[in-house]
Amino acid sequence: MEEPPAVAEGAAAMTGRILHFVDLQRICSPDGPAPRLTVVCRWADREGIRYRYDRKGRIWTTIDAVNAALGIAEPAANQENAMELI
């Protein structure tokens, strides 16, 4: 049985189809310093990216939500969306 690829400890890596706050910080400001929560929230709102808050008060979203905001793809009608499961 093949083992899943290892992720460096402490690395801010995407896990599956979920984008965590650190991922959104990198997307929001790829070349600058890590933006604060309010900046990332304003950016996501401006871009039309739906998100939710985690238990630490930071935001997270799904790759599907980002793709929908970009107009790349819309989820199929029968496809479950992690944003709707909450």
Can you give a write-up of this model?
Mean pLDDT is 80; it is low at 4-12. The protein starts with 17 loop residues before the first strand and ends in a 16-residue tail after the last helix. It is globular and about 30 Å long. By secondary structure, it is an alpha+beta fold. It has 3 helices and 3 strands, in the order E-H-H-E-E-H. The protein has a domain at 35-76. The protein has a 3-stranded antiparallel β-sheet with strand order 1-3-2. It comes from Xanthomonas campestris pv. campestris (strain ATCC 33913 / DSM 3586 / NCPPB 528 / LMG 568 / P 25). This is DUF4224 domain-containing protein.
Broad structural category: alpha+beta
Strand content: 5-15%
Strand tally: 3
SSE arrangement, N to C: EHHEEH
Total count of helical runs of at least 4 residues: 3
Distance between the termini: 33 Å
Q: Which stretches are low in confidence, meaning pLDDT under 50 for 5 or more residues running?
A: 4-12
Specify Rg, calculated over alpha carbons.
14 Å
Q: Sketch the major β-sheet.
A: 3 strands, antiparallel
Helix content: 25-40%
Shape: globular
Topology:
Blueprint: E1 18-19, H1 21-28, H2 37-47, E2 52-53, E3 59-62, H3 63-70
Antiparallel strand pairs: 1-3, 2-3
Helix pairs in contact: 1-2
